[in-house]
Design goal:
By secondary structure, the protein is of the alpha/beta class. It folds into 2 domains: 85 residues, DNA polymerase, domain 1 (Orthogonal Bundle), CATH 1.10.150; 246 residues, Metal-dependent hydrolases (TIM Barrel). It is built from 14 helices and 7 strands. A 7-stranded parallel beta sheet has the order 1-2-3-4-5-6-7. Helix 12 links the parallel strand 6 and strand 7. Helix 1 packs across helix 4 and helix 1 runs parallel beside helix 5. The protein is elongated, with a radius of gyration of 22 Å. The relative contact order is 0.13.
């Protein structure tokens, strides 16, 4: 999201009733709190702290300018649910026309570009085909994900919450997914004309290669990302059959994080699944399914050698964030950097395509 306008600093905010003149500015307070949350998410910091700042933004955003200023003057901001010392200090700084010290520190530490190379390819990205909201295991409401995608200059964002079998991630039953489609439609009635939230799902690839959602419901979606989340140590031949079957399904558009590996991060490390990558990627090329370059730093999936193999075979690619929070939508820089280093042509990356072409490609499956 954009950086809030710089404000002069005049010392730390007081937590007691104050007499200094305040400028009512709910929008400025909310912007500062959202920016803090964005930078923390981008750096994969503690989800507890992030939730606290986003909760404070929601609580203070519900006030009028006059209500906020009155509470600030009286020293009663912390009486509001979800407002602690930290968020109160940030609000008071903004109301005094100051730049919050904590935000300044984060800007200094975290605001630099995530990637050193591949800026040209990153700039060509028009959309992202893989993201999650708090309907499944994401950390923020759909509208917050949408606002951030718009602020990042996206033309489209695909909402791909999990499917029913992944109960640990609160996967969407058919009924819940149908309700979500109504929410997506409502959001698209109020967003700017140059942006669209596309409907989608990250559907589990079941043991036999079938997809974990009603076929007729999958046909209603703009984009379907199919991923393996279970039995990652399945024997190679069986895993190959499983993945080729899923890729051959006419409802599949993208093969998500194909090896399932984890290379770093709080969840520890996990080796990649064993399968015949040539057979799987040949199926992707045959059926016009994009191979996802997953931009999450703990995944970096597929590995470089498999991206090179998919490139040689003639596959399309989707540089996706797999974002579970708004700040993680900026991870696309990391995927673009990897693709750039491996000489993946921009025209083979479907996330560089205009929205109309992307939707038409996905519908042809």
């Amino acid at each position: 999201m954009p950086k809030p306008a710089a404000r002069p600093r005049h010392g730390s905010a007081s937590l007691t009733p104050i007499t200094a003149e305040l400028t009512p500015d709910v929008a400025g307070v909310v912007l500062a709190l959202r920016r803090i949350s964005f930078l923390l998410e981008r750096a994969l910091e503690s989800s507890y702290r992030i939730k606290a700042f986003r909760g404070a933004a929601a609580a203070l955003g519900a006030l009028t300018d006059e209500e906020l200023a009155a509470r600030a003057q009286a020293g009663t901001l912390q009486e509001l649910p979800g407002i602690g010392k930290g968020s109160e200090a940030i609000a008071l700084a903004v109301l005094r026309g100051e730049s919050p010290a904590y935000l300044d520190q984060l800007e200094e530490r975290q605001a630099a570009p995530l990637a050193h190379d591949g800026a040209e390819l990153a700039a060509l990205q028009r959309g992202d085909l893989h993201s999650h909201s708090d309907w499944s295991d994401g950390g923020s409401p759909i509208d917050e994900m949408v606002m951030t995608a718009i602020e990042l200059g996206r033309e489209y964002q695909v909402l791909t919450d999990h499917s029913p079998r992944l109960t640990v991630a609160n996967g969407l039953s058919p009924a819940r997914l149908r309700r979500q489609l109504g929410v997506v439609e409502g959001i698209n009635q109020i967003v700017p004309d140059d942006f669209r939230l596309l409907s989608g799902i990250e559907v589990d690839i079941l043991d036999d290669g079938s997809l974990d959602q009603e076929p007729d419901l999958l046909e209603e979606l703009d984009v379907v990302v199919a991923s393996v989340h279970s039995k990652l140590k399945m024997e190679s031949a069986a895993m190959t059959r499983r993945m080729v079957t899923a890729v051959s399904n006419p409802r599949t558009n993208v093969l998500g994080h194909c090896t399932g590996r984890l290379v770093t991060g709080g969840r520890g490390k996990r080796p990649q699944s064993s399968f015949d990558a040539r057979a799987v990627f040949e199926a992707c090329a045959e059926h016009d399914v994009a191979v996802e370059i997953n931009s999450r730093p703990e995944r970096q999936d597929p590995p470089d050698d498999l991206i090179q193999l998919a490139l040689e075979i003639g596959c399309l690619f989707a540089i996706d964030t797999d974002a579970h929070a708004p700040g993680q939508l900026d991870f696309q820089q990391l995927g673009a950097e990897r693709a750039w280093h491996l000489d993946v042509p921009a025209e083979r990356v479907v996330t560089t395509w205009p929205r109309e072409r992307l939707v038409e490609w996905a519908a042809q499956r």
